[in-house]
TrEMBL record:
Species in which this protein is naturally found: Paenibacillus sp. BIHB 4019
Protein name in the entry: Short-chain dehydrogenase
Xref: InterPro entries: NAD(P)-bd_dom_sf, SDR_fam
GO MF term set: oxidoreductase activity
Keywords: Oxidoreductase
Highest taxon in the source lineage: Bacteria
SUPFAM superfamilies: NAD(P)-binding Rossmann-fold domains
Entries under Pfam families matching the protein: adh_short
Amino acid sequence: MQSIEGKTIVVTGASSGVGAAAVKKLFERGALVIPVGRSHSRTAAIAKEIGVKPYTADFMSLENVRELANKLMQELPHIDILVNNAGGIPAQTGATVDGNEPIFQVNTLSPLLLTLMLTPHIQKNKGRVINTSSRSHKGASIDKQDWQKTAGLRSHAVYARSKLITGMLFREYYRRYGIEFADFHPGLIRSDFGRYMGVYASILKTVFAPFLSTPAQGAETLIHLAETKDRLDGRYYVRKQEAKGNLLLEDRLLAGWLWEECYKKLHLIGAE
């Protein structure tokens, strides 16, 4: 393993759960950790604990993401590791201000936009990108004719598809830019489990309690990927070990097509 002491690490989704746990663990190892969260108060509390400035952004707004990226580039000389941990299933069901399906924008478009904008800063020190994925992506599929379909799908199916698309896009990013990348499944996290399951959440939490991980346990693979000397070459990890992901993760033709489509949605000129 390599030391991350003095490394500049940006962590999104840092105000709670795995993100907050990762911020503390990375700080304990001597890294300069930059927490980014949606909630200003919670992100500020985390930032205060480690003596840094908090950054906030709502991934439901691409303009918010652009503003965040510009601030980070202005205020940081470089970025050694970008951790795209923000995501989930937003409560909003209607289109975002950008006209996108909310789950897709929060889990796919916004992290991709942030990463693309920060790429010059990541390249300066030959940095790496680490994404929080989900095991649910393994059960998802993509139909090019209707790849953003939501009718008749439960929110968790849309979420799983968004994680699959994100995984495909970031492997395409790795191929195009050569920046080290890996994603990982943190496990079922106690603090998050059942958040979107309404009245059944408390019952399910009791039933599944023995199988749930703490946020600190969920962050262990993230820390491993930050510290490993091995080159991160687009693989998927579970419990610090390489694992098998959805076969579509290796579909380069489909990934290239998705890249073009998402570039249009991000209002970027020409797919690089």
